[in-house]
């Protein structure tokens, strides 16, 4: 009869185990391991010695408040001759003696979270179990070391904003390994309504990254629950800060945690996506932030964005919108719930736009399902498909109440972007979401998605009058500059047209502001094959006070053909970039030593900047805090001086 081991004390070997499991950046003061991979602890016996075949040890691993073998949140196992990585198992790897080296392995599909492990009657240890993208048996397995470094271990990244003609990279500190952040991420799971309703079932669901993705998509926003961030797209930001203020996820997650799970005010799409990315990576799911330029928001699921303008080309509000850009996340996992071929990147969107199964969440949906037009796949395929493929139809509402179609060349889903692996450059991943425009594969995907409007549009594009909007390289914030409407007559007859050229401030999600400049030409003559450039001067004295924090101006040209009565519309958003902040490290950086840096900013405006503040943060550099340095005045640009701060 075997004798139970009498354990006196133990050593969890946290530094060795955490390093082996790629969790040492979280710290080595507690045991944090990944599923499906063995970890080793040392047991020191109170009496007796370990004898192969003559000693026994009953191990019980439990997670959640209601551990159950039925739910998979409780596992009971004894000593085996060897570790079995397909299930919970334990094996002694040391020779006989009063010190036992015990190797333990969790199942590769075990629920993630906080665990207690009982070792017979005399030992009870605690550890955290995470997803394991290094384990071939895990549903989040990613077989590329560079991608694992980028999408799991990297704490900083780039989020692309601006416009599709001029993408702007915004640095972001994800900070998933900063002190306390993992605990906040686990708390997010514990605060979700499904856990509140049935904690045993919810904890069981945490074995499945599809389930976890859906929970996180709902919990990063606070529309239905005690989620992390409150969105705000209009009006001021009283009671909080502008979404533009944030440069990292750490302070947001810390604020939510320390203020009794009250939502952090305020966020917009890139903030929701970035916070979600932090939580995904912290839990071990490979994740990246994606930006879709000219992103459609289809409110009635007909794959059509209906825009209305008046006879002067001015927009009339409607439910459907085209966002200048929209950010979501992709996470890497298998999809055993779908037919084969749809593993890999899955799109999830934590920005609260439309409800899914009664909750403000979206996804995960395989990116390939969007490309192939598989709109019956889970979850929320029609909404994401519309974001990158919706048809845009423009109507003119006339004074007499009638409406007419307006030809428009707006195409949604442009330059879908993410940060490249191992560099700060932009990777264009549009081809993962869409086949080349006009290709046979695109036609098949549209037919499968029943997207007849787009197919008809391809067949009946106007080849007569063509309108485009051009800009010049001297287009800078703080300056006066020209933009141009370029009209081309591709017909064989003379044309007499009315041209309306307008501009207004606009937010990134398509909400329009005040007029920045306007021109109405009643008699534009064009001979066959002729081209005419019509300039519109934008003066800083007018547009400067109208810009939103997005620095966007919407340009629109409406061309009315007197001969045929047809109208053609061209729309383009331009972005006026903020001045570059330059950072120069002073001296040689050394670990655990203070680091000095010089920050330089040149004021591009013809007026002083007053009461300014630099906010600095960096992964494992500022202790998870934002360092603020207030400056009271920036000189104007004509002094040819730059402002530096050490």
Topology:
Layout: E1 3-4, E2 6-11, H1 14-20, E3 32-34, E4 39-47, E5 55-56, E6 59-63, E7 74-77, E8 79-80, E9 89-92, E10 99-105, E11 113-119, E12 123-130, H2 145-153, E13 156-163, E14 166-173, H3 181-190, H4 193-197, H5 199-205, H6 209-219, E15 229-231, H7 250-258, E16 264-267, H8 269-283, E17 287-297, E18 304-309, E19 315-316, E20 321-333, E21 344-348, E22 365-366, H9 367-372, H10 381-389, E23 391-397, E24 403-408, E25 414-419, E26 426-428, H11 430-433, H12 440-448, H13 452-459, E27 465-471, E28 481-489, E29 495-506, E30 512-526, E31 531-538, H14 540-543, E32 552-561, E33 567-575, E34 581-586, E35 596-601, E36 609-616, E37 627-634, E38 643-645
Helix pairs in contact: 3-7
Summarize the structure.
The protein is an alpha+beta fold and 646 residues long.
Textual characterization of the structure:
- By secondary structure, the protein is an alpha+beta fold.
- 17% of the residues lie in helices and 38% in strands.
- The strands form ten sheets. It has an eight-stranded mixed sheet. Strands 22-21-20-17-25-26 form a six-stranded antiparallel sheet, sandwiched between helices. A five-stranded mixed sheet has the order 2-4-10-9-8.
- Helix 3 (181-190) packs across helix 7.
- The N and C termini lie far apart (72 Å).
């Amino acid at each position: 009869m075997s004798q139970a081991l009498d354990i006196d004390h133990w050593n969890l070997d946290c530094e060795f185990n955490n390093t082996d499991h790629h969790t040492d950046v979280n710290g080595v003061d507690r045991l944090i391991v990944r599923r499906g991979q063995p970890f080793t602890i040392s047991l020191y016996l109170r009496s007796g010695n370990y004898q192969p075949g003559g000693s026994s040890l009953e191990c019980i691993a439990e997670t959640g408040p209601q551990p159950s073998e039925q739910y998979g949140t409780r596992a009971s196992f004894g000593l085996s001759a060897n570790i079995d990585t397909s299930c919970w198992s334990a094996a002694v790897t040391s020779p006989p003696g009063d010190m036992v080296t015990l190797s333990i392995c969790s199942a590769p599909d075990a629920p993630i979270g906080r665990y207690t492990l009982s070792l017979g009657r005399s030992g009870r240890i605690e550890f955290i179990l995470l997803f394991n993208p290094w384990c071939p048996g895990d549903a989040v397995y990613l077989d590329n070391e560079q991608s694992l470094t980028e999408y799991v271990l990297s704490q900083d990244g780039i989020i692309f904003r601006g416009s599709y003609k001029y993408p702007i990279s915004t640095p972001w500190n994800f900070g998933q390994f900063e002190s306390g952040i993992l605990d906040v991420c686990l708390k997010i799971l514990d605060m979700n309504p499904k856990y509140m309703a049935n904690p045993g079932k919810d904890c069981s669901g945490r074995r499945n990254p599809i389930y976890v993705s859906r929970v996180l998509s709902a919990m990063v926003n606070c529309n239905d629950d005690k989620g992390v961030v409150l969105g705000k797209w209009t009006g001021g930001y009283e009671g909080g800060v502008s979404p533009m203020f944030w440069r990292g996820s750490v302070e947001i997650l810390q604020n939510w945690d320390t203020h009794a799970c009250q939502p952090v005010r305020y966020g917009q799409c890139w903030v929701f996506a970035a916070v979600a990315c932090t939580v995904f990576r912290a839990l071990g799911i490979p994740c990246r932030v994606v930006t879709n330029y000219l992103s459609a928001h289809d409110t009635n699921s007909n794959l059509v964005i209906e825009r209305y303008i008046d006879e002067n080309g001015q927009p009339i509000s409607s439910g459907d919108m085209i966002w200048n850009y929209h950010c979501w996340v992709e996470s890497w996992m298998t999809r055993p719930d779908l037919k084969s071929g749809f593993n890999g990147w899955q799109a999830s969107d934590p920005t609260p736009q439309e409800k899914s199964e009664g909750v403000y969440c979206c996804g995960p949906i395989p990116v390939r399902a969007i490309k192939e037009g598989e709109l019956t796949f889970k979850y929320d395929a029609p909404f994401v498909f519309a974001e990158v493929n919706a048809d845009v139809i423009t109507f003119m509402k006339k004074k007499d109440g009638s409406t007419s179609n307006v030809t428009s060349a707006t195409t949604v889903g442009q330059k879908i972007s993410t940060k490249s692996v191992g560099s700060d450059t932009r990777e264009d991943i549009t081809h993962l979401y869409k086949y080349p425009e006009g290709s046979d594969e695109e036609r098949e995907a549209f037919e499968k998605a029943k997207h007849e409007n787009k197919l008809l549009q391809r067949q009946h594009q106007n080849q007569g009058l063509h309108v485009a909007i051009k800009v010049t390289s001297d287009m800078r914030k703080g300056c006066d500059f020209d933009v141009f409407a370029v009209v081309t007559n591709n017909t064989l007859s003379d044309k007499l047209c009315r041209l309306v050229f307008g501009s207004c401030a606009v937010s990134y999600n398509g909400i329009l502001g005040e007029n920045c400049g306007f021109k109405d030409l009643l008699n534009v003559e064009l001979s066959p094959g002729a081209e005419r450039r019509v300039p519109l001067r934008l003066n800083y004295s007018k547009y400067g006070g109208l810009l939103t924090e997005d620095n966007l101006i919407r340009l629109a040209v409406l061309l009315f053909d007197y001969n045929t009565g047809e109208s053609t519309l061209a729309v383009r958003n331009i972005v006026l970039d903020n001045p570059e902040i330059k950072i120069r490290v002073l001296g040689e950086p050394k670990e655990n030593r203070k680091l000095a840096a010089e920050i330089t900013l040149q004021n591009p405006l013809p007026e002083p900047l007053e009461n300014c503040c630099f906010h600095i943060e960096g992964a494992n550099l500022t202790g998870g805090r934002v360092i603020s340095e207030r400056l009271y005045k920036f000189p104007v640009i004509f002094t040819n001086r730059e402002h530096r701060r050490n």
